[in-house]
Amino acid sequence: MERRGRRDAIIILIIMMIIAAVITSWLTGLWSCESQRKDLTEKERLTIADYINSISVLVQHSNKISLNFFTTLNKIKDISKEELDASLTQPIEESEIILENSREMSPPEFFEVSQGYLELVFDTRNRAYESFKPALFNILQDIDYDKSSSQISNSFLFMYM
Q: What does the buried/exposed string (b/e) look like for 104-129 if buried means 16 or more CB atoms within 10 Å of the residue's CB?
């Protein structure tokens, strides 16, 4: 039974990596036709460039939050529960802000699908942070160890999206 759960987690991780690769290649223009790009007006090019810059800022901020989150986990033995609570609350709040900012963005024409995937990734990361915190505190207090460890492993899987 344990082996099957591990296999499912690996399959989900591979699928998410494929989705991320497809979105990245599509956003970078790997699959676009050069002739279609020439038909864009200067205003459309600037709109797309602004959109991509905005996305880049959100993704970089999200990655910074993730790095800080894992840095906090590395210091878990050295900090008090109050400091741990505050350190885990901050990524949740910042992740919610990133999610809201991504939802407020209006993508240029033909970028609606990639915008949906981007929002899905930010939403999944946010839910991972939210489910991780109570699971970690349950483990630290020896409450429902099996369920908490399952929540933590799922949270880690979603964080790596």
A: eeebbeebeebbeebeebbbebbbbb
pTM of the model: 0.66
The span from the CA of 145 to the CA of 153, in Å, is 12
Sequential DSSP letters for 106-126: -PPTT-HHHHHHHHHHHHHHH
Q: Give me the residue label for tokens 């989705």.
A: 19
Burial class (CB in 10 A: 0-12, 13-18, 19+), 15: exposed
pLDDT < 70 positions in the chain: 1-6, 29-38, 139, 142, 144-145, 148, 156-161
Phi-psi region of 106 (alpha: psi -120 to 50; beta: other; left: phi over 0): beta
Q: How many DSSP H helices and E strands does the chain contain?
A: 6, 0
In whole angstroms, what is the distance from residue 126 CA to residue 132 CA? Answer: 10
The domain spans of the chain are 2-159
- CA angle, corner 87, sides to 150 and 160, nearest 5? 45
CA dihedral sign of residues 42, 48, 54, 59: negative
